[in-house]
Specification:
The chain has a domain of 97 residues: minor pseudopilin epsh fold, CATH 3.55.40. The protein starts with 10 loop residues before the first helix and ends in a 22-residue tail after the last strand. It contains one helix and eight strands. By secondary structure, the chain is of the alpha+beta class. Helix content is 28%, strand content 20%.
Length: 184
C-alpha cells in the first residue's frame, strides 16, 4: 500500500510567505495612507470647484445674483465650510434663500477627516460672473500636514483656480507663491 500524499505548505514555505507579507505591509501601508488622504481631499476640491463653476455659469445664464455658501439648514448661509454647500439664485438680493427661491444644488457635509476654511461671507456671483471680493477655500486633512493642503482660489473675475506645487517641493502654494499652511 502506498502512503497518501497530503497537499499543503511546509513550515518553511509558510514562514517565507509571512516574511514577504510583512515586508510589503511595512513599505506599502504608509504610502497607501497618503494616497487615500490625497484622493479624498482632491475629490472634495473637485466637487467644490464644480459647485463654484456651476454657480458662476448660472449667474451668467440667468443674469442674476447667484450665491454659493455652506449651510446647515439649506436656507441660511454660515461660515463653516465643512457644512453642506448650497447654490441658489438670490432673486431679492438678501443673501438668504427664501421659500420662493429654488435650491439649485444642495451637497452633503464634507468628510469628517477634512478641515475646510473659506470666506466668512457667501460667495456672490453677479450677473456677469464676477465676484465682489476674491476668495480662497483651503482644504486640509485633520492631521494638519502641509503636504496634503490644497486650495481653490477665486479671482475677482469669478474664475476658479487650483493651487499648485510650482517649485516641486511637495507643498502647494497660493497665488503669491506662499506655501499653503494647515497649522492653527
Amino acid at each position: 500500500m502506498k502512503p497518501k500524499r497530503t497537499k499543503g505548505f511546509t513550515l518553511l514555505e509558510l514562514m517565507i510567505t509571512v516574511a514577504i507579507v510583512g515586508v510589503l505591509l511595512t513599505t506599502v501601508v504608509p504610502n497607501a495612507r497618503g494616497l487615500l488622504i490625497r484622493n479624498r481631499i482632491v475629490a472634495e476640491v473637485n466637487y467644490t470647484s464644480s459647485l463654484m463653476q456651476f454657480a458662476r455659469h448660472t449667474a451668467i445664464d440667468e443674469q442674476a445674483v447667484t450665491i454659493m455658501c455652506p449651510s446647515t439648514d439649506f436656507s441660511n448661509c454660515t461660515a463653516d465650510w465643512t457644512q453642506p454647500k448650497i447654490v441658489f439664485v438670490d432673486a431679492n438680493n438678501n443673501g438668504t434663500r427664501n421659500d420662493d427661491e429654488e435650491l439649485l444644488v444642495g451637497s452633503e457635509q464634507s468628510h469628517d477627516t477634512h478641515a475646510i476654511t473659506g470666506p466668512n461671507a457667501p460667495i456672490r456671483f453677479s450677473g456677469n460672473g464676477t465676484v465682489a471680493s476674491p476668495a480662497t477655500i483651503l482644504f486640509c486633512h485633520n492631521g494638519r500636514e502641509a503636504e496634503f493642503a490644497r486650495a481653490l482660489i477665486l479671482s475677482l473675475q469669478g474664475r476658479v483656480k487650483l493651487s499648485a506645487d510650482s517649485n516641486n517641493d511637495g507643498i502647494y502654494e497660493d497665488n503669491n507663491g506662499m506655501p499653503l499652511s494647515c497649522a492653527g
